[in-house]
UniProtKB/TrEMBL annotation:
<protein>
    <submittedName>
        <fullName>Putative mRNA 3-end processing factor</fullName>
    </submittedName>
</protein>
<dbReference type="InterPro" id="IPR026360">
    <property type="entry name" value="Xnuc_lig_assoc"/>
</dbReference>
<dbReference type="InterPro" id="IPR050698">
    <property type="entry name" value="MBL"/>
</dbReference>
<dbReference type="GO" id="GO:0004521">
    <property type="term" value="F:RNA endonuclease activity"/>
</dbReference>
<dbReference type="InterPro" id="IPR036866">
    <property type="entry name" value="RibonucZ/Hydroxyglut_hydro"/>
</dbReference>
Amino acid sequence: MTELVVQRPEGLYCPPGDFYIDPWRPVDRAVITHAHADHARTGHGHYLAAAAGEGVLRQRLGEITLQTLAYGERIAHHGVEISLHPAGHVLGSAQVRLSHGGEVWVASGDYKVAPDPTCAPFEPQRCDVFITESTFGLPIYRWRSDAELFAEIDAWWQANAELGRASLLACYSFGKAQRILAGVNAAIGPIVVHGAVEPLNQAYRAAGVALPATQLATEITDRAVFKRALVLCPPSAAASTWARRFGDVGTAFASGWMQLRGARRRGGYDRGFVLSDHADWPGLHRAIGATGAQRVIVTHGSIPVMVRYLGEQGLQAGAFQTEYGDEVLETEAA
């Protein structure tokens, strides 16, 4: 049996196809699952990615040699059939399906199974081997519905606005910020964003994703605007001098890590909203089960727990040691 994906110092490598998936060292040919910094890096000779993510990928990486595929479109490279399928993680996120020698492997990158109006929904692919993340691979992680969560965010924003203070919500600039924009009630007040967020908003709008109007914080001269505003920024900015311009603020952090007791306190936030672009514990196992795979390889997150649990379910489970993990980026202020 040919191993369609193996671990190398540069990243996950497909030997028969002679290419890498989300490599963390510069390589000649890279298939990219999505544009988050731990999966899409500069320095590769040739990039292959989903067409839906072209805008955000170019915005983040600049001038690159990029080939795109529509979801479900198939190409052959050195005898390996490659196709990309929605992962439901962020705009343009994809699972990489590889077919060669009668076997099918799927490398999922990062994914979520919950609905999200800002990206194509997760589509399970039947396969022999499934390579999965496990960022929130513990039974404690179980997400509530978006309707319930955004009602809470709106109520927090509304209460702050009535007190005449800004609502500063820290979140990851790519994916999380746009999901928040699509979910909140923009009628409550103006929406102000950090300079790291707006270019991604523009890429989403260019891709046809409907987002409410946003204003750059640095372009606002009337400080009265801030008194009813929702302000979206990266966690690093929330703890910097950049945030002083808003005066009296209520602060919050939107992340799956807010499920953990103490995470909000360590970050110094008033509120924590449990919102993640990754699958929770039930979602991970629902996704794995839908593939029909008898062998599962875990790449990052709660690896030992996930491998042990999958083995107890009768699956052949193992792990790749990778350099993935945008939890580092999400908790930079914690």
